[in-house]
């Protein structure tokens, strides 16, 4: 969690575990701001959420 913006930060450099991915999906579903490390991660969660 970013202390300045309050957004959930998704770190890059490794694949997310199932639990971490579920946490990101739940945050997106709840309308929480999520900041991704790169466009690839962002695109992955955008495609899967449609």
Short précis:
By secondary structure, this protein is α+β, with helices and mostly antiparallel strands. Helix content is 46%, strand content 12%. The protein is globular and about 25 Å long.
Write structural notes for this entry:
The chain has 50 residues and is α+β, with helices and mostly antiparallel strands. 46% of the residues lie in helices and 12% in strands. Strand 1 (8-10), helix 1 (18-29) and strand 2 (34-36) form a beta-alpha-beta unit. The radius of gyration is 10 Å and the shape is globular.
Please tag this protein with its features.
2 strands; two-stranded parallel sheet; alpha+beta; 50 residues
